[in-house]
Amino acid sequence: DTEVTQTPKHLVMGMTNKKSLKCEQHMGHRAMYWYKQKAKKPPELMFVYSYEKLSINESVPSRFSPECPNSSLLNLHLHALQPEDSALYLCASSQEPGQGRSYEQYFGPGTRLTVT
Amino acid sequence: RKEVEQDPGPFNVPEGATVAFNCTYSNSASQSFFWYRQDCRKEPKLLMSVYSSGNEDGRFTAQLNRASQYISLLIRDSKLSDSATYLCVVNMNQGNTPLVFGKGTRLSVIA
User: Fold this and answer.
1) How many CB pairs under 8 A join A and B?
2) Mean pLDDT for all residues in chain B
3) What is the mean pLDDT of residues A37-57?
4) Is A108 at the interface with chain B, CB within 8 A?
5) Quick one: CA torsion of B81, B84, B86, B87, rounded to 10 degrees?
6) What is the mean pLDDT of residues A3-7?
C-alpha cells in the first residue's frame, strides 16, 4: 500500500483564520515532507520530518507551523496567511534517506488552499 | 547552472509516437534519480526510479548518463493517457535538501 492521505481536499480561509492540514501514511516511512506547489511550478519543499523530529525548515514563514504527533501523522497549522499563500499543499513520505541516497517519495493528493 | 534542468516543452506528439525527454543535473555526486508524472491539478506520482544500468517498465525506459550528468525518459507507443507533466527529480547529496525537482516537461499526446 503506497497511499498517503490528506485532509481536507479543499480549504478556503480568511487571513485571520486558524486552520490545520492533516496527512497520514501507513507505509512505515520515517521521513515525511510538506511541499507547496503553485500553478505551473514544481513542488517547493517546506519542511522535512525525520523520525518525528523536524530536520529541515526551508526558511518557511512562521505563519506555517508543522507538527508530527506520531510516525504516521503530519499536520500543518496555518495562521494569519496571506493571499499569496494560496497553493496546493502536498504531503509526502519516504524511507529515511541515508548514505547519500534518497528514496522514492510518495505524495498525497494534496489540499488546495485558497486564502481570501 | 541550475540544479536540475528540463526542457519545459510542450511536446505535442501523435498517438503511437516515440518521445524522449532529457534532464540534466548539476551535482556529480548525486546518487538518486526519479521520474514522476503529474496530471493537471493532481499530485506527482512516481513513474520510475532511474538506476545506473538503466531500467524499463513496459513502454517506459529510463537511462542515466553519469559522465554527462543527465537522465532520460523514453516513451514508446504513446497513448492519450500519457499526456501529463513529467518531473525529473534528483538528490543533490549536499546541504539539507533531500530531493530537487526540475520544472517539468509538458507532454500532449494527440489523437
Assistant:
1) 55
2) 93
3) 94
4) yes
5) -130
6) 96
Cα end-to-end distance, chain A, whole Å = 36
Interchain CB distance below 8 Å, A108 and B104: no
Q: What are the counts of helices (DSSP H) followed by strands (DSSP E) for chain B?
A: 0, 11
Q: How far apart are CA B66 and CA A1, in angstroms?
A: 32
Which residues, in sequence order, are CB contacts of B3 under 8 Å at separation 6+?
B25, B26, B27, B90, B92, B100
Q: Do strands A87-94 and A31-37 pair parallel, antiparallel, or not at all (unpaired)?
A: antiparallel
All three cell numbers of A24, joined, read 497520514
Contacts (Cβ under 8 Å, ≥6 apart) of B53: none
Taking CA atoms, B102 is separated from A62, A78, B89, in Å, by 27, 27, 6
Structural contact between residues B34 and B46, judged by C-beta atoms closer than 8 angstroms: yes
